[in-house]
Amino acid sequence: MTYPDIREAICDVCHKMWQLGWVAANDGNISVRTGENRIWVTPAGVSKGYMTEDQLVCVDLDGNVVTGDTETITITFGN
Q1: CA dist., res. 5 & res. 79, Å (int)
Q2: Is 4 helix (H, G, I), strand (E, B) or coil?
Q3: Radius of gyration, alpha carbons of the chain
Q4: Measured distance CA(54)–CA(77) in Å, rounded
Q5: What is the pLDDT of residues 56-78, one digit of tens each?
Q6: Per residue in 21-65, pLDDT tens?
Q7: Is 77 exposed, middle or buried (0-12, 13-18, 19+ CB in 10 A)?
Q8: DSSP states of 6-39
Q9: From CA 66, how far away is CA 52, in angstroms rounded?
Q10: DSSP for 40-58?
């Protein structure tokens, strides 16, 4: 899959979760690891029902933003 395909798929999952009532308002996050050191994540504080591809953020495994708005994400990596 290409990055645009992945971003579209993430938004499709967000929209479906919202439509099914699995999330309310701004609940939860979706993330997809797309490479050895890349993860696409949904922003905090955005309704999954209205998520758009341009709102997604790509980070590396250290939590550094590769592309996207740094003010809209909350990331915690476990050990």
Answers
A1: 29
A2: helix
A3: 12
A4: 23
A5: 999 998 888 888 876 666 665 55
A6: 998 878 878 889 998 899 999 988 888 999 999 999 999 988 888
A7: exposed
A8: HHHHHHHHHHHHHHTTSS-TT----EEEEETTEE
A9: 18
A10: EEPPTT--GGG--GGG-EE
